[in-house]
Write a structure and sequence with these properties.
The protein is α+β, with helices and mostly antiparallel strands and 338 residues long. It is built from 11 helices and 12 strands.
Length: 338
């Protein structure tokens, strides 16, 4: 019996007819951070609902399911399955199996939040488009000046929806391939130079200089297009939101077995309370300003997921009035992958 429950993937305990733990597998001991064998179930699980269910099963037989939550060291949610097991022998009267539902609940909550946010982001420009169309069909039907102005506004809203849909599709594609690490190689220095050239017009309009400093090639195991997206998102954000600093510094370096690239601006900076949430989907420090600048709220979420796929990391540092720096670190390409 011990070998049988030991092979199960979930925490399992067998109880005698006095609710004393007769046997427990390793997963149960790890979860409870103790060896409950020989002790009353209440010593291991202080959940009245489970204890009452066990007592009911011992008295009347059958099976029950009960929710069980652990709050330390991190919140976790379980479903406890309790069943009479007298068929095994007189020493075992009941089985308690704990199924971890934490990840399922987190995934469902993330999915619901994602749908709610995406729907909200699309609803606003769509409502504007419908309003403009109704106006053009009615009061401004023969007003050429108003028509031209409304058509320009409609184009802006349509482009906003297109950017949002493009980012959603991009994020979905990246998540689908998250478990597959890229097999090619890419040079972060060349990517930074490419991004500078690509964004030269935007930087010129904002009167911002993009300065690249790197000791030479920084080859990493990665996908060129995805890493271009990472660095372009970071530099473009710096141009949009920190143009007042007039200078964006992109610095590359080798750090041990990794390659590092820092995008530093000298703009207004970001308040400390926002930093931990910047990579969340649709999170903005100032939603109105972000939308007015064409932001979708997905740029840094895309950056995070691409870096995860590349086994990389990002560190964000900022102080109000002292600019911000976004540091990405990716394992350097091995000689075999070059």
């Amino acid at each position: 019996m011990t070998a049988l429950i030991g092979a199960l993937p979930d925490p399992v305990m067998l109880l005698d007819d006095h609710s004393v733990v007769y046997s427990a597998n390793t997963r149960a001991k790890d979860l409870l951070n103790m060896d409950p064998v020989g002790q009353h179930l209440s010593s291991a699980i202080r959940a009245p609902a489970i204890l009452e269910a066990v007592q009911n099963i011992l008295e009347h037989g059958g099976s029950m399911r009960v929710d069980y939550e652990l709050h330390v060291p991190v919140p976790r949610h379980f479903e406890a399955f309790i069943s009479a097991m007298s068929i095994i022998g007189p020493e075992v009267a009941a089985l308690v199996l704990l199924r971890d539902l934490t990840r399922e609940q987190q995934t469902e909550r993330m999915r619901a939040d994602f749908v709610a946010h995406a729907s909200h982001e699309l609803r606003t420009p769509l409502a504007s488009l419908l309003g403009f169309i109704e106006t053009l069909q009615g009061a401004a039907k023969k007003d050429e000046v108003s028509r031209e102005r409304f058509l320009a506004l409609m184009q802006t809203q349509a482009q906003r929806m297109k950017r949002l849909i493009d980012d959603l599709l991009s994020l979905s594609r990246i998540e689908m391939n998250a478990h597959q690490r890229p097999t090619g190689t890419a040079d972060l220095t060349q990517i930074a130079l490419h991004v500078r050239d690509t964004l030269a017009g935007l930087a010129r309009d904002a009167e911002v200089e993009i300065k690249i400093e790197s000791p030479g090639p920084l080859a990493v195991q990665g996908d060129w297009d995805e890493l271009v997206q990472v660095i372009q998102n970071l530099v473009e954000n710096a141009i949009k939101y920190a143009a007042s600093g007039k200078l964006i510094e992109v610095t590359g370096m080798r750090v041990g077995e990794d390659c590092e690239l820092v995008v530093r601006d000298h703009g207004p900076g970001i308040a400390e309370q926002h930093l931990p949430r910047l990579t969340e989907r649709f999170y903005r420090t100032n939603a109105q300003e972000s939308r007015s600048r064409g932001g979708t709220g997905l740029g840094l979420a895309i950056v995070k997921h691409i870096l995860n796929r590349h086994r990389g990391k990002m560190r964000i540092q900022s102080q109000l009035g002292d600019g911000s720096s976004f540091t990405i670190r990716i394992p350097a390409a091995s000689s075999k992958s070059k």
